[in-house]
């Protein structure tokens, strides 16, 4: 058991050194009962829910819990943000917590799909994926990272195409979040 605890401590130390100290120094990380980690944002827990629909894929979803332990909706937590930039940082923090929870599980042939909130989509006018690419590079994960864009973007095809292209330009696979899992967006065909 001590060996697992040491490995968890090593993962957390690595994460703090490589990512948290650079991007999220005001957002604490706490261990959970299952050997994973959660973040804290204004006393709300930012938790990772992982699914593995296929051996080559991980799907991460964000769960938020109020200080009382009750599950709360994402928009409830985002409403606590005083500035739109804070909602953007919260989104990146949640995805980074997911990566922390996958540090010891990710394999080269796998794709990890991480959700992006509508708050981030609306709060970042251009250059989607630039900051998060640096976070991923700092963690040196051996796998592909997929960005699950909000399904509501399907109603805005031109905007969806621009945002997906920006993420792809930064090295990410892109998909729309769908009830059945990520619906991968193919890169534009070259004529």
List the keywords.
191 residues; alpha/beta; 9-stranded mixed β-sheet
User: What characteristic shape results from the CA principal axes?
Assistant: globular
Percent helix range: 25-40%
Mean pLDDT: 86
Structural class determined from secondary elements: alpha/beta
Q: Tally the structural domains.
A: 1
Largest sheet: 9 strands, mixed
**Between the first and last Cα atoms, what is the distance in angstroms?**
57 Å
Number of helices: 6
Radius of gyration, taken over Cα atoms and rounded to an integer in Å: 16 Å
Task: Outline the low-pLDDT stretches.
Answer: 1-6
User: In what range is the share of β-strand residues?
Assistant: 15-25%
Beta strand count = 9
* Order of helical and strand elements: HEEEEEHHEHHEHEE
Organism: Paludibacterium purpuratum
Protein name: EAL domain-containing protein
Structure description:
The protein has 191 residues and is an alpha/beta fold. The protein has one domain. The protein contains six helices and nine strands, in the order αβββββααβααβαββ. Strands 1, 2, 3, 4, 5, 6, 7, 8 and 9 form a nine-stranded mixed sheet that branches. The chain is globular, with a radius of gyration of 16 Å. It starts with a helix and ends in a 7-residue tail after the last strand. Residues 1-6 have low confidence and may be disordered.
């Amino acid at each position: 058991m001590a060996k697992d605890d040491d490995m968890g401590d090593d993962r957390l130390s690595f994460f703090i050194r490589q990512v948290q100290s650079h991007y999220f120094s005001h957002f604490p990380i706490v261990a959970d009962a299952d050997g994973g980690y959660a973040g804290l944002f204004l006393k709300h827990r930012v938790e990772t829910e992982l699914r593995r629909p296929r051996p080559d894929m991980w799907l991460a979803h964000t769960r938020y819990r109020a200080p009382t332990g009750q599950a709360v909706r994402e928009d409830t937590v985002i409403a606590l943000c005083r500035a739109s930039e804070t909602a953007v940082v919260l989104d990146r923090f949640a995805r980074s917590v997911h990566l922390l929870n996958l540090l010891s599980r990710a394999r080269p042939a796998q794709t990890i799909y991480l959700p992006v909130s509508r708050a981030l989509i609306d709060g970042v006018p251009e250059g989607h994926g630039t900051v998060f690419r640096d976070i991923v590079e700092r963690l040196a994960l051996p796998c592909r990272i997929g960005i699950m864009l909000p399904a509501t973007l399907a109603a805005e095809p031109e905007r969806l195409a621009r945002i997906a292209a920006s993420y792809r330009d930064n090295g990410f696979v892109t998909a729309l979040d769908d009830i059945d899992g990520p619906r991968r967006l193919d890169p534009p065909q070259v004529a």
